[in-house]
Design a protein that fits this description.
GO terms for molecular function: mannose-1-phosphate guanylyltransferase (GTP) activity. By secondary structure, the protein is an all-beta fold. It has a single domain, classed as Jelly Rolls (Sandwich), CATH 2.60.120. The protein has no helices and 11 strands. It has a 6-stranded antiparallel sheet with strand order 1-2-3-10-5-8, with no helix packed on it. Strands 7-6-9 form a 3-stranded antiparallel sheet, with no helix packed on it. Strands 4-11 form a two-stranded antiparallel ribbon. A hairpin with a 2-residue loop joins strand 1 and strand 2. It is globular and about 35 Å long.
């Protein structure tokens, strides 16, 4: 299983199919993903360890183990870990494309930029 290390933590792709993609994502204490959205996919996040502070279109809520966040295509979202232990969640992506280049970043703590062509829906 391949692991991808990011500034906020790491993730593993558990399944990659034409109709969906499944990841196990671990956010380290103090870590925060970019505030982002996608043109070509929706996501469902299920917390399996710790607590994740999830922002959905500006609404902020803490999610604990067993809680689920539905993220429709185009909705701005992020998760952060404000606790001392890791936050782990399972992400299930549904849509027509699952590449990392379908991330449109609005804010990013690590100065990563989005592919500007995606801002036009390409």
């Amino acid at each position: 299983m391949e692991i991808d290390i990011r500034p906020w933590g790491k993730y593993w792709v558990l399944e990659d199919a034409p109709t969906h993609k499944v990841k196990r994502i671990e956010v380290k204490p103090g870590g925060r993903l970019s505030y982002q959205y996608h043109h070509k996919r929706s996501e469902v996040w299920t917390i399996i360890e710790g607590v994740g502070r999830i922002t959905l279109d500006g609404e902020v809520k803490d999610y604990g183990v067993g809680e689920v966040a539905q993220i429709p295509q185009g909705v701005k979202h992020r998760i952060e870990n404000t606790k001392e232990e890791p936050c782990v969640f399972i992400e299930v992506q549904h849509g027509s494309y699952f590449g990392e280049d379908d991330i449109v970043r609005i804010e990013d703590d690590y100065n990563r930029v989005s592919d500007k062509s995606l801002l036009n829906g390409n």
